[in-house]
Every structure is written in structure tokens, then in C-alpha cells.
Specification:
heterodimer; A: 795 residues; alpha/beta; Phosphorylase Kinase, domain 1; Rossmann fold; Dimethylsulfoxide Reductase, domain 2; seven-stranded mixed β-sheet; six-stranded mixed barrel; 33% helix; 17% strand; globular; B: 197 residues; alpha+beta; three-stranded antiparallel β-sheet; two-stranded antiparallel sheet
Chain lengths: 795, 197
């Protein structure tokens, strides 16, 4: 057979045709200059972490186009992080919930129903549950990401309407210990200073916080301060894991998880021993306490911390650093012209989280590193509105709006009067805290629960146990959310909610700053603002239960439009009636003022004139905090008027080192700790749907110390089994000298059942704050197999 | 058609094609190695790679992450040779492929000595360099963080002496610059080295 010319040409043509197939098609290049045409930029604050960055959302023809920072902002100076830049992509995501979904039984498939029907069903179920078990049988579980108006209205209906204090929220899982710490040490919740101290600080004491990944924009400010003053500014980082934050530290102390209370006491010891404390400040403003709140003396305190010699603490902490290192950092802390402490979950999510908080505050009180510029004891918040909505707005079972403890009858009466509900309507006893609430669901005691804007199915510790309760058919679950989550899978009724910038409301960030975000675009489909949902639901509830008091709760809000008037009326009621005279006095921060003040207002801000100056930068300082003047009792420049301390002093607590609830043993020899990664947010329902962010971290992995990896035969990328007494995960390994030897670290965002680390974590709680100890439990670590290709998993 | 005839035909076809005018001819001889299109670890210079590789596919088979793909007929004379498209699935440097290569096309080298290419940051695309967004995804994902990529005032900087060119940074980079490019790309510098003077 010979090759003809014709054959040759035919075949050549086929081959060249094939080669053309791989040709790249021209891709539309984004013309940056023209992309801005016709875009309207709407001001607001960021939807993600608790930093409270001021951002602008670009909208073109009703469609979000992008997000940018604003250079003159007081919080972020125009910088935004990667997840902040991209969160707008959630808004028009095809997965958005756009119709109410209902199923009678949890085994059924969801059916789309009308809002009318959905609200009827919700009201019906709550009325039925209330009839069966009263206020104890209903519950609300909210979020530090809800707007203040939403949390406030929900808790008003629950307490004033349904007579239930079962009002909780996910800040119990992250901020409760910090709140309890502030209350017990300073007598008032929330930090005294704010971010403005960073630019004046000379020493940063970062403990139990990976600021670089969890609060990247604040980290930039810290880094800037350090780089501009490399010799005069010291950065101390204390963490069992070398994180990205440790990179800028002058000194990093790595301790065994759970031993930091000894370390903090040892620092106090050095400060007392070397007479580095501010005797004048202590004498004027502080008293010493032990046990429940029993008064004691300076000598007692000295004797207490004397036990914690640096040598002893270094040994307790695992011997990874020298006793002299503790002396060095204690001197840096005490002697600097201004020391700012920063912490997050490393201290809060602990069996003794409140104590850990107290011990950090102790260092500030004894050294007088407080109330002056450049010095503060600053707990960083994880969520945009954990402070504003939940801690201030009454979103936890034991507090009413305006930092009012539920048990206090006088304060309860104030709230009842403000709402116009009969006296005694709000139950006197606090409701169930988060873990007790989900235990009650396990036992079937709660018959109807409304879960708003959070996913406890994934975010609770030891979540398998609590998912069982949520799967019960006699527990009716309503979920308001923007995306399907693992929790909406447990719901009977899923209500599509509006996203940030699709509704109006206030977020209050870490530094007592309240910022307004106005509605900029319409919600997709039939999604509605939560405030509208609650009002409509409450009206039906009032009819079905034939209870005029419930109708009274929403009476001031009837007939108002959901986009602006309704949240404004709610905000006005909350601030004008319920924050008056309280330490978070927000009367000056009206919508009109917040619209003028691009960076929001820091409370206390009792008058509009004062709010228009930006509010209180430093609490408790006469001349800077209007309440320090009005509440003044003597001639001293600082007035600690916090309601929790009737003696108006700062309390220095005598606290011992305490072990975590679960320690490694022969069977479970490793510590497990969990945390965040820069590109993801909580349960990933938002960031997991943004391809740019998911690509960077498609799935969780476990960080193993190289020495441990060597011993266990784990190579990078190998699949590793992490098993505790509660659950098991199978994750790829990252061999990395981050976690201290004997500890492994896993990011908690992944939704995949094999990589959801909260199946493994422990649900032990702090007896004071009731916050679970996510950060420490004991696990087995075992190599399971060679590397495997994994796929990201989003519900 | 006999095997012999077929091979003859194929040979003639390919030779003939390379003389065809226009891109079709050049494409069939052109190396597939380009920005973000790399040979697996330990590959000999591109000049001799196609000649040395016997297209056995063992590297493709052994790759646990499916990073290595086998080129098909559209790659012309490079059909059957391995390639890593790093912005899709990067090389995680498990070094399994170099162990199984029977021809030495992939030389047996250590993980840290791998030079698949060099990461290059486009400072006009990188948001950290543009100074508006705090991104350090490449730094976080780099298997040799602090060595191959370090941060200079929160902006990533590459050190050529440690960068393996694995492309994990490219795959993770959240900035898409079009044409399969990111703000950080791997340039196959070493593949272009000449073997013969």
C-alpha cells in the first residue's frame, strides 16, 4: 500500500485541525479604567470579622460590582483583607436562598411555600410549643453577625412576648469569657481603649491570638507600628503554635496548651518582685479579690503570685523557653510607655477562660498600663456585631439590652416599662446558655427554636452529639439564612434572609464603635430582612396565642417599611429608651448622626453633639468620656463607674493555674487545637462559595510538628486520622514547625463530614462564662494512608 | 495497513506538517512548556526532554494529586509527555514521579532541589503590591514559606535560591489575570537551559 498525495493531505489536515482545538480562545480582558463607569459606591462596614473595616460597595444597575476600602477610614485606613474584598460575590450567588422552604418532617424533602404560609407555620409551631411548655419550650439562637436591630427585636419578642430568656447566640462560643473577664476585672463590659492605642503603643502583648490571619487589617496596623519603630516597640507573642503573627514578634514563647495561667501569674510575680508595679495607681483605683469576689490584700496577692516563680512557670509550660524569658517579657510589659494586650479565642475558648482574661487584666491594672493613650487590655472580637448586637443588645440568656443582668429586678422593670409590657413579663431567671440549650434540645425539652444567621450543626463543639437533638422530629427548627448550611439541613422551615447591604442596620465592632450600613441593593428573589420577618411572625403569634402583649411588642414598628424606617424605629427604641444612662449610652448615635459619621460612633455617646466628635476614645477618663464626668464621685482623673463593681474600683484577681478539662494521656496522647485561616470565615457558607478564596484553601488539613511527624511516619500530604473520645476526622497532613511538639492544629471551617473538626473537639465549658473549651482536647494521631486527591465540600 | 506503513505515514505526516505554513506547523513542534505549564520535578531541559521521554505515563499514573497530565495528540511531537498545569493543580512535591521515571527524563532529585520554574510576581496585578488589599495567600501556601517567599512589609517577595516552582502559590492566588495567568506565575526558566553549548 502506498501513500498517495491525497491521503497525505487529508491526514495532515486532520492533524492540523486537532492542533487548532487547543487554541486559546481570546479572554475578555477587564478594562479596569472603564469598569468604574456608572458604578455607585455605597458606604458601610465589612460583613466579616470584628475589626469593623469601613468599606464601600460598588453597585451598577442594581448589581454589586466590587468592594473597596476608604483611605480616610479610622479603622482600616483603606485596607481590606482578601475575604473582605470578595464577600460581595455572595450577594448574587446562585445558591442564595430565595424562597421559604418547608417540610413537616425532617426526613421529607423541602417544598417552596409562600411567605404567608411560612410565617403562619412558624407562629403556629411557636404558639404550640409555648402552650405545651411555656417559655422554657421555645428558644432563639442568634448570631454575632446579625444586625443590632435584628438581635434586639428577636430578644424583645422572646422575652417580652413569649416570656422566655432562652435567648442565646454564637458569641457564647467566642466572646463570653472576654465579657465575663471585663465585667469581673473592670466592672464594665468591653475594652477601655481601642485601635487608636496601636499607633501610640510601645509594647504589644499578643496572647492566644493569630491576629495576622484572624484580624489581618489590624495586624497591618501593629506591623506598621513595629516597622516604623523597630527598636522602641516590642512585640511579644505567646502561643502554643508559631503562627503568622509570631513572625513580627521580638519574643515568642511557646507553651504547652493550658499552661498560660501559670505563665501570666509568673509575669505578675516578676512585676511584683522587681517592684515594677504602679503602687499609686493600684492604691487609687484597685482592690484585690479572690474566690467569688471576696476582698483581700496586696500582700495576699504577692504571696499568691510568689508561688509562680519564672523557673516554676517555665517548667510547667513545657520547658520550651527559659525562666529569664518570662522576666524579659514582664519587664517589657511593665516598663514600656504603653502596653496593649490583644487576645482572642486562645484565652476565651477555655475551661478557665474568664480566669485567663482576669490574669491579663491583672497585669494591666498592677502596672497602670490602662486608661492612658497607648495602653489597653483589648479583647479582639471575631464577629462584626458580637459586641454591638449581642453583648450590648441583650442577645445572651443572662443579659437584657444595655448591659442589664436579667436577675436584677430593678433593671428588668426598666426594660418592661420601656417596652410597655406588664411588670413581671420578663422571667427573673436567666435562660439556658448555648450548651444547655442544645442539651435541652437533645432531651426534647425545647420544642421550637429559631436559629438565625449561624450554623450550630457545625460550630458547636462535639457537634455530632448535638446534631442528634436537632434531628429530632419533635423539635421544630426555623432557620433564617442566606445560603443552605449544615443547619438548614436540620430545619423544618428555612426562611431566605437579606444579606449585608440588602438591608439597613448597625454593626458594633471590637472597640465600641457602631457603624451604620444602609440598604444599597434589593435582595434576590423573595429574601426579606429579618426585622420584617420577626415583625410579621410576631403579629401572627399574637393572634394565635391571643396575647395583646406580643402585639404591644411590635406596635411601635407597625406599618414601617423594612428597608429603612423599620430598622430606624427599632434602633431608636433601643438606644433612646434602653441605653440612656447605661455605660453603652448610644442616645447620641442616632441614624442621622451615624449617616454623617462615616466611621461611626464609639460609645458612651449620650448626646448628638458629642457623638458627632466620634464618641469616646477612652472610657473612664474625665474629660474624654462624658460619663466619667457625670458619674464622677471624687477628684481622681479616672472614674471606673462600671455597674458590676459597686465599689468603683478595678479588681485584681487571685487566680491559680488550672488544667484544661481534658489532658492528653496514654490513650489520647496529643493536644488538639483549632483556629481560623486567613481566607475563610467560620462555617465557610460564604467564603466557600467564592472560588478565589476556596481555591487557596479548598479543604482543612492538620498541622503536625515535624518531630511528631517523624515519629509517627507522617509525610507531607499523607492522610492522617485525628481521633478523640467524641469523634474522628481524616485530614491531609501539613508537616510544619507551627504547633509545639505534642500538639496538632486543625482549621475548623471545613464542612465535609471527614474534615469537620468540631466532631472531635470537647464540649466542656467554663463554669463562669459557659463558653466551651474548643481550644484544647486530647486526641490520637495516626497516619492513615498516602496522599489522596480531595475535593472541597460545600453544602 | 501494516504497522510499518502506519509509522512511515505518521513520520512523514509529522515531518511534512512542520513545513506547513502558518501556526499549524509550528504548533506541532513547539514545546508545551510555557508560563504555568511545566514539566514534573527533575525534568531534563526541554531541548532534550521530548527525545528522552518514552511516553510511558508512569509519572502520570503515580501522581497522587493528579497534578501531572499526559499531553494528547494536540501537542504534536510532545504528545504523551507529562505536563503540570500549575494554576489548576500544582505540584505538591511528593517526589513520587521522579522515583518511577525509567528513562531519567525526570532525574532523581530532592524535594528542595526541584526547579520546575521560578515564581514571578506581577506587581501590577498583585493586590498586596498594589497596596489596597491585604493578601498573602502565596506566602501562606508556599511549602518553603520564609525561604522561597517572604513578606516584606506584608508584600510577597520571591527568593530564587529556594523557589522550587511547584506552583502551589499560583494555584492558590486569588487574583485571576486572564489567559490562565494569576498575579503570581511560574516561569519555566530552567527548562530553557541549553544542553549543548
Amino acid at each position: 500500500m502506498t501513500q498517495t498525495r491525497r491521503d497525505f493531505i487529508k491526514k495532515a489536515a486532520a492533524l492540523s485541525a486537532a492542533s487548532y482545538v487547543s487554541m486559546n480562545l481570546p479572554i475578555d480582558k477587564i478594562n479596569l479604567a472603564r469598569a468604574d463607569e456608572g458604578v455607585v459606591w455605597h458606604r458601610g462596614s465589612c460583613r466579616l470579622c470584628g475589626v469593623g473595616c469601613r468599606v464601600e460597595l460598588g453597585v451598577k444597575d442594581g448589581v454589586p460590582m466590587g468592594l473597596r476600602g476608604v483611605a480616610e477610614s479610622r479603622t482600616n485606613f483603606g485596607y481590606v483583607c482578601m475575604k473582605g474584598t470578595y464577600f460581595w460575590k455572595c450577594m448574587r450567588h446562585p445558591d442564595r436562598l430565595t424562597k421559604p422552604l418547608y417540610r413537616a418532617k425532617k426526613s421529607d424533602a423541602f417544598k417552596e411555600i409562600s411567605w404567608d404560609k411560612a410565617l403562619d407555620i412558624a407562629a403556629d409551631q411557636f404558639a404550640r410549643a409555648h402552650k405545651a411548655g411555656g417559655g422554657d419550650a421555645v428558644a432563639y439562637y442568634g448570631s454575632g453577625q446579625s444586625l443590632t436591630e435584628e438581635t434586639y427585636l428577636f430578644q424583645k419578642i422572646m422575652r417580652g412576648g413569649l416570656q422566655s430568656n432562652n435567648v442565646e447566640g454564637n458569641p457564647r462560643l467566642c466572646m463570653a469569657s472576654a465579657a465575663a473577664g471585663y465585667l469581673s476585672s473592670f466592672g464594665a463590659d468591653e475594652p477601655i481603649g481601642g485601635y487608636a492605642d496601636f499607633e501610640k503603643a510601645h509594647c504589644f502583648f499578643i496572647i492566644g491570638s493569630n491576629t495576622a490571619e484572624a484580624h489581618p487589617v489590624l495586624f497591618r496596623r501593629i506591623m506598621r507600628r513595629k516597622l516604623d519603630n523597630p527598636n522602641t516597640v516590642k512585640v511579644i507573642n505567646i502561643d502554643p503554635r508559631i503562627s503568622q503573627t509570631s513572625r513580627i514578634a521580638d519574643m515568642h514563647l511557646q507553651f504547652m496548651p493550658g499552661t498560660d495561667l501559670a505563665l501570666l501569674n509568673a509575669m505578675a510575680n516578676v512585676i511584683m518582685e522587681e517592684k515594677l508595679y504602679d503602687a499609686e495607681f493600684v492604691k487609687n483605683y484597685a482592690t484585690f479579690r479572690k474566690g467569688e469576689a471576696e476582698q483581700t490584700t496586696l500582700e495576699d496577692f504577692k504571696a499568691q503570685v510568689a508561688k509562680y516563680t519564672p523557673e516554676m512557670a517555665a517548667k510547667v509550660c513545657g520547658g520550651t523557653f527559659k525562666a529569664d524569658d518570662i522576666r524579659t517579657i514582664a519587664r517589657w510589659f511593665a516598663k514600656s510607655k504603653g502596653t496593649v494586650s490583644l487576645w482572642t479565642m486562645g484565652l476565651n475558648q477555655r475551661k478557665r477562660g474568664v480566669w485567663a482574661n482576669n490574669l491579663v487584666h491583672n497585669l494591666h491594672i498592677i502596672t497602670g498600663q490602662l486608661v492612658k493613650d497607648g495602653a489597653d487590655s483589648l479583647s479582639l472580637t471575631g464577629q462584626p456585631n458580637a459586641c454591638g448586637g449581642v453583648r450590648e443588645g441583650g442577645g445572651l440568656c443572662h443579659i437584657l439590652p444595655g448591659h442589664r443582668p436579667v436577675e436584677n429586678e430593678k433593671l428588668r422593670r426598666q426594660v418592661e416599662a420601656a417596652w410597655g409590657v406588664p411588670e413581671g413579663r420578663i422571667p427573673a431567671a436567666p435562660g439556658l446558655h448555648t450548651m444547655a440549650m442544645f442539651s435541652a434540645i437533645n432531651e426534647g425539652k425545647i420544642k421550637a427554636i429559631w436559629i438565625n444567621c449561624t450554623s450550630p450543626a457545625q460550630s458547636l463543639p462535639n457537634c455530632t452529639l448535638y446534631n442528634k437533638g436537632m434531628d429530632r422530629d419533635d423539635v421544630f427548627i426555623v432557620c433564617t439564612d442566606i445560603f443552605p448550611t449544615l443547619t438548614t439541613q436540620k430545619a423544618n422551615l428555612v426562611l431566605p434572609a437579606s444579606f449585608h447591604f440588602e438591608k439597613t442596620g448597625v454593626y458594633g465592632c471590637t472597640e465600641r464603635r457602631s457603624q451604620l450600613t444602609r440598604k444599597a441593593i434589593d435582595s434576590p428573589g423573595e429574601a426579606r430582612a429579618e426585622v420584617w420577618i420577626v415583625r410579621e411572625w410576631a403579629r401572627r403569634l399574637a393572634e394565635k396565642m391571643n396575647d395583646p402583649v406580643i402585639a404591644q411588642c411590635i406596635k411601635p414598628f407597625e406599618g414601617l417599611t423594612e428597608g429603612y424606617e423599620l430598622p430606624k424605629a427599632i434602633w431608636d427604641e433601643y438606644t433612646q429608651k434602653l441605653t440612656a444612662g447605661r455605660d453603652n449610652d448610644l442616645r447620641g448615635a442616632t441614624y442621622a448622626v451615624l449617616e454623617k459619621m462615616a466611621d461611626g460612633v464609639q460609645w458612651p455617646a449620650p448626646t448628638e453633639e458629642f457623638a458627632l466628635t466620634g464618641g469616646t476614645v477612652k472610657k473612664f477618663v474625665k474629660g474624654r468620656d462624658p460619663m466619667a464626668t457625670t458619674e464622677s464621685r471624687n477628684d481622681l482623673p479616672y472614674q471606673f463607674y462600671g455597674a458590676a463593681h459597686p465599689d468603683r474600683t478595678l479588681w485584681i484577681w487571685l487566680r491559680e493555674q488550672a488544667d484544661p478539662e481534658e489532658m492528653p494521656d496514654a490513650e489520647y496522647p496529643f493536644y488538639l487545637s483549632t483556629g481560623r485561616i486567613i481566607d475563610h470565615w467560620h462555617t465557610m457558607s460564604m467564603t466557600g462559595r467564592i472560588p478565589e478564596l476556596l481555591r487557596a484553601n479548598p479543604y482543612a488539613y492538620v498541622e503536625v510538628n515535624p518531630k511528631d511527624a517523624d515519629r509517627l511516619g507522617i509525610k507531607p500530604g499523607d492522610m492522617v486520622e485525628i481521633k478523640s473520645r467524641r469523634g474522628v476526622n481524616l485530614l491531609p497532613a501539613k508537616v510544619y514547625a507551627g504547633p509545639v511538639e505534642g500538639m496538632v492544629f486543625v482549621y475548623w471551617h471545613d464542612q465535609h463530614p471527614d474534615r469537620m473538626i468540631n466532631k472531635v473537639t470537647k464540649d466542656g465549658i467554663d463554669p463562669g462564662s459557659k463558653e466551651p473549651e474548643f481550644k484544647i482536647c486530647a486526641v490520637q494521631v495516626k497516619r492513615a494512608s498516602d496522599p489522596k486527591p480531595l475535593e472541597p465540600y460545600i453544602v | 495497513m501494516q504497522r510499518r506503513t502506519f509509522l512511515k505515514l505518521l513520520g512523514t505526516g509529522l515531518t511534512g506538517l512542520s513545513f506547513l505554513p502558518g501556526p499549524a506547523g509550528a504548533k506541532l513542534l513547539q514545546s508545551p512548556v510555557a508560563t504555568n505549564r511545566l514539566r514534573p520535578p527533575g525534568a531534563v531541559p526541554e531541548e532534550i526532554f521530548a527525545a528522552r521521554c518514552i511516553r510511558c505515563g508512569r509519572c502520570v499514573e503515580v501522581c497522587p494529586y493528579r497534578s501531572i497530565i499526559m499531553l494528547d495528540i494536540r501537542a504534536g511531537i510532545h504528545a504523551g509527555t507529562p505536563l503540570v498545569e500549575v494554576e489548576k493543580i500544582p505540584c505538591y512535591l511528593c517526589m513520587k514521579c521522579v522515583e518511577v521515571c525509567p528513562t531519567g527524563s525526570l532525574e532523581r532529585i530532592q524535594q528542595q532541589d526541584t526547579r520546575m520554574g521560578l515564581a514571578v510576581i506581577n506587581r501590577f496585578h498583585c493586590v498586596a503590591w498594589l497596596g489596597t488589599i491585604l493578601c498573602r495567600t502565596c506566602y501562606d501556601k508556599c511549602p518553603y514559606a520564609e525561604k522561597a517567599i517572604r513578606l516584606d512589609q506584608l508584600r510577597p517577595v520571591i527568593d530564587a535560591s529556594a523557589c522550587t516552582g511547584c506552583g502551589i502559590c499560583t494555584s492558590a492566588c486569588p487574583v485571576a489575570a486572564g489567559d490562565d495567568r494569576k498575579a503570581i506565575n511560574i516561569e519555566p526558566l530552567y527548562a530553557r537551559q541549553k544542553v549543548s553549548g
